[in-house]
């Protein structure tokens, strides 16, 4: 029986016992507060060229996102699910830097990164962090990582150095017994997500020794906004047959559009066009649940290549979704269950015997006539053990459950994805 204190990791717009990791990655600065003590310095931060983003990492993050979405929909049928695959993957990668042996292999399986060495993974994530910087005045994209350690608990210098160097993590040592520490950490999350996510932690237990936190914020103005005067209340039909009135935005235009026997899909670009939101509306005779069960990363990627310009009309709800969930069960189902047990091996973090006890994820998405705003925070908890033919205009009325994705067309990164079953 081990008698060490617990640790929590926070993953983004989800991980909490020894390490809690909130997903977000912009530049690195050592965080200082009146009660903070900076941990040992690491190697100088590397500057990664934006053209070095590894497509293997992007594909792995896509598979992770779709796998997680499938698991979460199974766990909560009929409910909204909204995740940031980028945030979750980045936060877990930070924790992965401390995993060894079978635990490392199990995490690699869940993260779909079996083909990447630790060095290649870190280099790719560093490059991705740099590449996601926005120079579009209509789009704000901010990603930040942080690592908060309990004072007087030693963590391995190379583990801290890699998280600082490749993930731009802000690192601080705090008195976890001071009630103000909880406010300090949550204030960081609130600041990084522009107030969309006020905090990721509810409490700090005596067993927790570290929080790895990632925060991700996105705000984009539509390339072509919807006219508010065209927005009218119309019925939205939920999966159980219930009907509710929602403000339905409307626009007739030339869209990037796809229609198959399974789904209607439309792509709505932001600003100069690098980023886009895609709306996926399953056909009525297919049904939302049947479509969701068969929707994979490979099918999604193939569908993106089939979008074509087409005249049509679109009706889309104006809505906001707030989502919070523990990802621990879903991640265990994806293969990394050992990391949550007494058999976990995080010897690369510390000489303490550690395990992940929870992975938490919070997201927010707001869609309106001007554009959309989204944020994510992920917390990982680690504990000690004990040529096109002319076509007629289309009509797409999003009045029933649908899927949504927000992506970066330049790097291929999937920033947010979700199932909107009951929009508010």
Automatic annotation (TrEMBL):
Residues 66-423 form the Serpin domain. It holds the Pfam family Serpin. Coiled coil: none annotated. SUPFAM superfamilies: Serpins. GO terms for molecular function: serine-type endopeptidase inhibitor activity. CDD domains: serpin_miropin-like. GO terms for cellular component: extracellular space. Belongs to the serpin family. This is Serpin family protein. The lineage of its organism: Bacteria, Bacillati, Cyanobacteriota, Cyanophyceae, Synechococcales.
């Amino acid at each position: 029986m081990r008698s060490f204190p617990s640790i929590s990791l926070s993953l983004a717009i989800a991980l909490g016992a020894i390490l809690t990791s909130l997903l977000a990655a912009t530049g690195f600065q050592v965080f200082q507060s009146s009660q903070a003590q900076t941990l040992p310095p690491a190697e100088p931060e590397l500057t990664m060229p934006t053209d070095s983003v590894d497509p293997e990492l992007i594909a792995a993050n896509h598979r992770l996102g779709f796998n997680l979405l499938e698991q979460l929909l199974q766990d909560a049928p009929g409910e909204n699910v909204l995740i940031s695959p980028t945030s979750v993957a980045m936060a877990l990668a930070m924790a992965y830097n401390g995993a060894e042996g079978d635990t490392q292999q199990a995490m690699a399986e869940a993260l779909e990164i079996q083909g990447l060495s630790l060095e290649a993974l870190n280099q790719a994530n560093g490059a991705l962090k740099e590449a996601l910087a926005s120079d579009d005045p209509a789009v704000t994209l901010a990603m930040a990582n942080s690592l908060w350690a309990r004072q007087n608990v030693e963590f391995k210098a190379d583990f801290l150095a890699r998280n600082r160097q490749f993930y731009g993590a802000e690192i601080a040592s705090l008195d976890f017994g001071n009630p103000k520490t909880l406010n300090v950490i949550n204030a960081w999350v609130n600041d990084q997500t522009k107030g969309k996510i006020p905090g990721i932690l509810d409490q700090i237990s005596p067993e927790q020794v570290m929080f790895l936190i990632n925060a991700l914020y996105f705000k984009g103005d539509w390339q072509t906004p919807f006219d508010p005067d065209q927005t009218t209340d119309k019925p939205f039909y939920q999966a159980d047959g219930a009907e509710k009135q929602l403000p339905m935005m409307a626009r007739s235009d030339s869209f990037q559009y796809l229609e198959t026997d399974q789904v209607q899909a439309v792509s709505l670009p932001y600003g100069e066009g690098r980023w886009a939101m895609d709306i996926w509306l399953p056909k009525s005779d297919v049904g939302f649940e049947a479509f969701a069960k068969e929707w994979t990363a490979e099918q999604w990627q193939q569908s993106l290549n089939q979008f074509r310009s087409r005249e049509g009309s679109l009706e889309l709800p104006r809505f906001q979704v707030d989502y919070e969930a523990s990802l621990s069960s879903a991640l265990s189902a994806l293969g990394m269950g050992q990391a949550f047990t007494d058999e976990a091996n995080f010897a690369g973090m510390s000489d303490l015997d550690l395990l992940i006890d929870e992975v938490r994820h919070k997201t927010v998405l707001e869609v309106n006539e001007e554009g959309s705003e989204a944020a994510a925070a992920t917390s990982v908890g680690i504990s000690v053990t004990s040529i096109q033919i002319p076509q007629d205009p289309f009509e797409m009325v999003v009045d029933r459950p649908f899927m949504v994705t927000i992506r970066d067309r330049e790097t291929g990164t999937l920033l947010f994805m979700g199932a909107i079953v009951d929009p508010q």
